[in-house]
Amino acid sequence: MLTAHGLCWLCKMPLALAHWGICSRCTRALRTDVMRCPQCGLPAGSDTFPCGRCLQKAPPWYRLVTVNDYAAPLSTLVQNLKFSGKPELALALSRLLLLRLKQTPPRRPDRLIAVPLWQRRHWRRGYNQADVLCRPLARWLGVRYQPEAMRRIRPTATQHQLSARRRKQNLKNAFRLEIAVTGLHIALVDDVVTTGSTVAELSRLLLQNGAASVQVWCLCRTL
């Protein structure tokens, strides 16, 4: 008999390969055909050249890769991973991101770095959702992943409760880099990028410490 792990997380139909987690039909439905700016990841007129926003004021990272907008059913899977104690979803969600990366291959990074959680939040959740996304990605891509590369050194208010201006203030001096990154190409991995304040702060920290480049990989990009 098939167990729940042999069924698609979305349509509940049997999977040809149980470890995929999401069937090929649902996987196609989760992909986006919307053209996005290759730098900020927001909808744009071209997916080859930076949008007007980035030409006026570019983010500190050079490229952002995302699976889709923060909308159902993808957002439901992300919420279950993040808030419902279901780290087993990470493998299926990481595969979605891997497929997206294969559609538009980015520069191969030297390191993957997960966006860190404050230690108390990590303890309450039992895991960092960005960490459990990074682990299979690093294995599949053959890229080194160092879980303790960055630390959140002080608690911050929950980002989605704050305005864009308050988000920037909230994150100032909240992170510390624990490894040498001079000359390395880095890929930051997170579940959701909204205003980009968190990954921007981390990107600046990496570049200030000598990183050659920073790109951002996420499941969802939204405003």
Automatic annotation (TrEMBL):
Domain Phosphoribosyltransferase: 144-221
Superkingdom of source: Bacteria
Pfam families: Pribosyltran
Matching InterPro entries: ComF/GntX_DNA_util-trans, PRTase-like, PRTase_dom
NCBIfam families: PRK11595.1
Family named by the database record: Belongs to the ComF/GntX family.
Official protein name in the record: DNA utilization protein GntX
Gene: gntX
